[in-house]
Design goal:
With 202 residues, the chain is of the alpha/beta class. Helices cover 38% and strands 13% of the residues. It has helices spanning 9-12, 28-36, 63-73, 97-114, 143-148, 151-162, 185-201, and strands at residues 2-7, 41-46, 79-83, 118-123, 165-168. It has a five-stranded parallel beta sheet, with helices on both faces.
């Protein structure tokens, strides 16, 4: 079974301590691979700064533009784990949590049209207080904390409407206190463990 993990820096595995990439024994897709074993093939498609549908200051960050190429180059795909939305909280996009969930719904539509894969829709972790004063304070203000708390509600609605499996990452993972955005090593392990349970149940 082939599983593509499509997401942003928290799927890529950014280390909040220094901006490097966590190694393979920490990143949740690789931990998921270890848990599931050789009958599963995990495909990492994480990109730092990736949004759902927005063009950002850095090039090649638009998740909608990347999606079809990623789907095509990795065929066949049995499951897509989709976890995007945190970067849509950036102040410059002026997006509500409902707007972001609607953007995610568009990505789900593309996956369902292009590939007959089961979708596990993951609502991202909550952004925590202090993000506006940290490393990424030039991009995220305090409202990102409030809006991120609403992800679960709206993503769950999208999952129900689009017949996706829903996982709320905030129930199992939280960002590091260093930058209030990126997952700690423990958070990566927790998310991988939960996703493994979901996949095995299928």
């Amino acid at each position: 079974m082939r599983i593509m993990c499509y997401g942003d820096s928290n799927t890529y595995g950014m280390n909040p301590l220094d901006g490097s990439r966590y190694d393979e024994n920490i990143r949740w897709p690789k931990v998921l691979q270890d848990i599931l074993g050789n009958n599963y093939e995990i495909i990492e498609e994480g990109q730092n700064g990736r949004t759902t549908i927005y063009d950002d200051e850095k090039p090649n960050r638009n998740g909608m533009k990347d999606l079809i190429p990623c789907l095509n180059k990795n065929k066949p795909i049995d499951i897509v784990i989709l976890m995007l939305g945190t970067n849509d909280l950036k102040t410059r996009f002026h997006a509500s949590s409902q707007d972001i969930a609607n953007n995610v719904s568009l990505l789900v539509d593309v996956i369902q049209k292009e590939n007959n894969a089961q979708i596990i829709l993951v609502s991202p972790m909550e952004v925590t207080r202090g993000v506006e004063n940290g490393t990424f304070g030039d991009s995220f203000d305090a409202s990102a904390v409030v809006r991120s708390k609403e992800f679960s509600k709206y993503y769950k609605e999208v999952a129900r409407e689009k017949h996706c499996i829903f996982v709320d990452a905030a129930m199992y993972s939280k960002p590091s206190d260093i930058d209030h955005l990126h997952m700690s090593a423990e958070a990566h392990r927790n998310l991988a463990n939960e996703l493994a349970k979901v996949i095995i149940s299928l």
